[in-house]
Amino acid sequence: AKAQGKDGYAMFAPSMRDGFDREVMWRTELQQALADRTLHVAYQPIVALGERRVAGVEALARWQHPQHGIVAPDEFIPVAERAGLIAELGLLVLRRACAEFAAWPGSQSTYLSVNVSPSQMLDASFPSKVAATLYEVGLRPTQLVLEVTENALADESEVIGTLRRLREFGIRIAIDDFGTGYASLRYLHRFPADIVKIDRTYVQDIARDPAAVHILGTLWQLFGALGLTAVAEGIEDPAQAAMLVELGCEVGQGFLYGHPGPLNSITVELAPAERT
Ligand code: C2E
Ligand code: CA
Ligand code: CA
Ligand code: CA
Fold first, then answer.
1. What is the pLDDT of residues 19-67, one digit of tens each?
2. Using a 6 Å CB cutoff, which residues line ligand 1?
């Protein structure tokens, strides 16, 4: 029993019992998906706003369920985390994304950005697994960005050691969903990162809330001072993009520039901006 939810994702009918049964069902099916490799990767462009060209692509996991259709990562990533499957899933996504990206002509001038769960960072062999993957497909470490949410910093010392090793290889680190967790400003200068991704809730506010404009403007100055590149997430209309550029934001992503989809649907050079 399935209904089509937002963005065409599968949703389960309310008649299905919640809780334990549902968790067990998801877990079993996710294990099957890992074995069958029915997990795949969608890509969303990350755009250099001024130059109007694609600077990078973010890999987003998709689960093509045999009966339910495409299941959203917000549903199955937490299940994978609780079931202890996230390391395996994360590595599968990373390997697949690296191989597909390396075969894409646009990879010559762009980077690949992959989401990583905090628990993956606790595996001491993670950096060498990533390095081996890059070597296998022939990508340079500077072509890879790994995205971690600021909540990963809760486990500070261990995660920070892993991040340092990744950066020694030349891999860049992005703090994802910045401004939604509790770590925030206090950790920013201690956290070994190169990029900060501003959560889309801030971006959505700028068109109607002058305070949001001040907050973003101030954040941008701070990031600049700390040597961090800021990426604005969730840009949906040209007015938001124009305001962000005015605030000094150089990089952004969102439905305005493309929905997640196959790599070869992405063109590196964008058409000129529409006049607003
Ligand atoms: P995220 O890393 O913050 O990824 C951005 C999410 O926002 C994506 O949802 C994307 O489709 C959506 N998005 C992009 N532009 C817009 C926009 O303009 N407006 C709106 N409303 N949404 C936009 P998606 O693909 O459903 O992924 C949800 C989350 O699942 C991701 O959030 C990430 O935290 C997690 N995730 C996805 N793939 C992986 C993965 O391979 N590993 C891990 N650990 N987490 C993943
Ligand atoms: Ca992300
Ligand atoms: Ca994000
Ligand atoms: Ca998110």
1. 777 788 888 888 888 888 889 999 999 999 999 999 999 999 999 888 8
2. 44, 60-61, 72-74, 77, 90, 93, 115-117, 176-177, 200, 234-236, 254-255, 260
